[in-house]
Amino acid sequence: MKRIKLLCLILALPVFLAAQQKKPNIIIILADDLGWGDVGFHGSGIRTPNLDQLAREGVELTRYYTAPICSPTRVGLLTGRYPNRSGIRETTIPPWSDFGLDTTEELLPQMLARSGYIHRAIIGKWHLGHASLSYHPMQRGFTHFYGHLNGAIDYFSQMREGERDWHNDLKPSADTGYATELITREAVKCIGAYAGDAPFFMYVAYNAPHGPFQAPEAWLKQYGYDPAKPKYGKKKPADPGEETGDGLGHGNTIRQTYAAMVSCMDDGIGQIMKALKDKGIDEHTIVLFHSDNGAAGSGNSGSHGSLRGYKFDEWEGGVRAPALVRWKGGGLKGGTRIDQVMGYVDIFPTLKAIAGQQEAAKKTLDGLNLWPVLNGSAGKLDREFYLGHGALLSGDWKLILDQGRPNMKLNGDVLFRIPPDDAETENVRAAHPDVYKRLKAAVAPYEAIRSKKEILSKGPKNGFVAPKDWQITKK
């Protein structure tokens, strides 16, 4: 009997080892225009209990950087390369543009497919091209797409430029409801369908709390909404991004509405985490959360907290995002904070290493594999991180070149030491001329990166008419 038991243990050992080495499920949750000061774990008055729990159970990345605007961040996140390499540098892709993310770029789901990730879903906002099927997410490595191609859709009607932009794979979706809740529902559904032997990848790209500012009444009431009082900004024609102009989803103030939008998204994140736990896979799933850029600062909506600046700026408030990562099965210690300079372009190489992908990347990556830093096996790295438009981080130094950006009002190049000056109040360029000279030389090669084709500005529309149901037919 002892020999039989020993033989059984020997035969079972490869199965046991395979189970221990099983690749984790990966879920990236991206918020849209969520400010540094708009989460509970940064002291906000906006209630985000699920994100706060994620911070307690996971690791807060206190110096996590993005591009200062939406589409460029999504490029870097999915490619591991700075977005100016793809011609997406300072703006987003408008509905009337024929521009899209370079189809020669390898995206994260394409890389993960080679590592055995059978299911690879994008749920929510794409915003990386819609003029032809070659730009469609299901032609870029994703096996499922549920959500919208454009940005700034109406949350209730899902309309943009007079046509409904809501899709299930390659066809229009007839699902109706509030966009944030529809995204959550689909994410939970996919977790139930994908949980199994093979690892899965989900990119949950909420459009909240990006404008137009609209929220369900139940969430507005949690912030004191009184339907007997006037709604904010109700007017005709429609408020920016809204299609009806009837004030649907408006609270009494923009800030009240914004807070309700954030809490609704937070509730959705809680439902996603619960679905993982219900399936018994929460400890074997990497969950990464961050915003795509800083708060828009429109009216009295998003907050940059103690940081300086907003979306569109290379100030910390525009590019430093609230960010969390949780992977209990991977040994990440909950409730810790890491001040390593890292960000959106590091996700591709880090997940590439975690997934055990041995093949060389199709193109040179700008990001680094920071898994050794996250798991504590390596110390803090002193590295350069390009923020775009003349801005560069190098360790604790930050340079921003004055290149005529009127919204930043620089009046000359500036140099900061971060920390301790996270709020960027003291320009130390004069006190450290050697550092200034070194960083100015270091940023020049990044600034010189150009693509053969670059995205055009946001206008004009030039008589643009949206396709029926935003269905792509051009190949």
UniProtKB/TrEMBL annotation:
GO molecular function: arylsulfatase activity; metal ion binding
Record key words, sorted: Calcium, Hydrolase, Metal-binding, Signal
InterPro entries linked: Alkaline_phosphatase_core_sf, Sulfatase, Sulfatase_CS, Sulfatase_N
Record field: transmembrane: none
Full protein name: Arylsulfatase
Extent of the signal sequence: 1-18
Pfam families registered for this protein in UniProt: Sulfatase
Every Sulfatase N-terminal domain range: 24-356
Residue span of region Disordered: 230-250
Organism in which the protein naturally occurs: Pedobacter yulinensis
SUPFAM superfamilies per record: Alkaline phosphatase-like
Keyword Signal in record: yes
Family: Belongs to the sulfatase family.
